[in-house]
Specification:
The chain is of the alpha/beta class and 310 residues long. It folds into two domains: 1-144, Rossmann fold, CATH 3.40.50.2300; 156-309, Reverse transcriptase/Diguanylate cyclase domain (Alpha-Beta Plaits, 2-Layer Sandwich). It has helices spanning 2-12, 25-35, 47-57, 73-82, 100-108, 121-146, 156-173, 187-194, 196-211, 238-253, 286-302, and strands at residues 17-21, 40-44, 61-64, 91-95, 113-116, 176-184, 220-225, 228-234, 270-278, 308-309. α1 runs parallel beside α6 (121-146), α3 runs parallel beside α4 and α8 packs across α9. The chain starts with a helix and ends with a strand. The protein binds 3'-deoxy-guanosine-5'-triphosphate and magnesium ion (3 copies). One of its GO terms (cellular component) is plasma membrane. Pfam families: GGDEF, Response_reg.
Length: 310
């Protein structure tokens, strides 16, 4: 058990977090005493408080009472499952209820387990550990599924889904969305001169620097393909997008990564195509936005590289 707990803490990057929700503080204290040695514990005495805490501290597991004044445990769970921030958190019901209908209802509202009181501490700990293991392993693989392993940026798969999702967001609010397509200049010559391994290292460093230019949680920076990157900037107009693209170019130029075979610059440089569209415009779509950014990237190359074209 100790070894599994250590592995989970490594996966989590800290002790796994459990939220205890029960309207009776005495019940919370009892479960807390059982689990606090192994986990970081958060406590809520109402459904609404549990929802608020779940959004804020993203627990890895919730132990939920059913009978509570106000929002009961089932309704609280159903709400957590409708919220993109909290839907992935497994909920175990811990309750005095015992009937078959109550147990079935727990699974219908999205719970992963149902434990009837009186609590057997050993069994509770075993079930908690099993569900935490499943949850943290699933997070681990989900993370791999959206990440480019060389650069740590989002991969193309994630980019495609983010583009569609963020477009819908901007469409609903009638706001502009911008896209940057970024390509390293003369990267084939870089590989030919310095070797493929040095090329990989350069890609990772450039990716990291591009990423460091974006601070809003809803901006998405991805590796689009080989030596190409893409940034989705929701709620961003043309002027701001151009400014950000120029800053990306400057930040990579400032790295002073030598490029002996480039006829553009002594250092590794970028060309960036910028596109901005507003959803209600006819002909505007994620596909059209991508095509325009690509066209502008081509123009940046044709104009002599190491520049932004919008
Ligand atoms: P341009 O300025 O027109 O963009 O020229 P370029 O040489 O950068 O463009 P081209 O598309 O001809 O070559 C891209 C190069 O990027 C070729 C390929 O070997 C390299 N590349 C793509 N992915 C990787 C990778 O993961 N690692 C390394 N080291 N090189 C890669
Ligand atoms: Mg209760
Ligand atoms: Mg390219
Ligand atoms: Mg290139």
């Amino acid at each position: 058990m100790k070894q599994i707990l250590e592995e989970l803490s490594t996966l989590r990057g800290g002790r796994p977090r459990i939220l205890l929700c029960d309207d009776q503080p005495i019940n919370i204290r009892l479960v807390n005493a059982l689990l606090k040695g192994d986990y970081e514990i958060f406590m809520a005495t109402s459904g609404l408080q549990a929802i608020e805490l779940s959004e804020r501290v993203t627990p890895d597991l919730i132990l939920m009472d059913v009978n509570m004044p106000g929002l009961n445990g089932y309704d609280t769970c159903a709400r957590l499952k409708q919220n993109t921030l909290t839907l992935g958190i497994p909920v175990i019901f811990l309750t005095g209820l015992k009937s078959e209908e109550d147990e079935v209802k727990a699974f219908e509202v999205g719970g992963v387990d149902f434990i009837s009181k009186p609590i057997n501490g050993t069994v509770l700990k075993a079930r908690v550990l099993t569900h935490l293991t499943l949850k943290l392993q699933s997070d681990f693989y989900l993370n791999i599924a959206v990440t480019d392993s060389l650069t740590g940026l989002f991969n193309r798969r994630k980019f495609d889904s983010e583009l569609a999702e963020k477009w819908e967001l901007c469409k609903r609010s009638g706001q502009a969305m911008s896209l940057l397509l970024i390509d390293i200049d003369h990267f084939k010559q870089y590989n030919d001169h310095y070797g493929h391994q040095a090329g990989d290292h350069c890609l990772a460093e450039v990716a990291h620097t591009i990423r460091s230019n974006f601070h809003r949680s809803y901006d998405c920076v991805a590796r689009y393909g080989g030596e190409e990157f893409a940034c989705i900037l929701p709620m961003t107009g043309r002027e701001q997008a151009i400014r950000q693209a120029q800053e990306v170019c400057h930040s990579v130029a400032r790295l002073h990564l030598p490029h002996a075979r480039s006829d553009t610059s002594a250092w590794v440089s970028l060309s960036i195509g910028v596109a901005t569209m507003i959803a209600p415009d006819h002909n505007a779509s994620p596909v059209a936005l991508l095509a325009l950014a690509d066209k502008n990237l081509y123009a940046a190359k044709a104009n002599g590289r190491a520049q932004v074209f919008a």
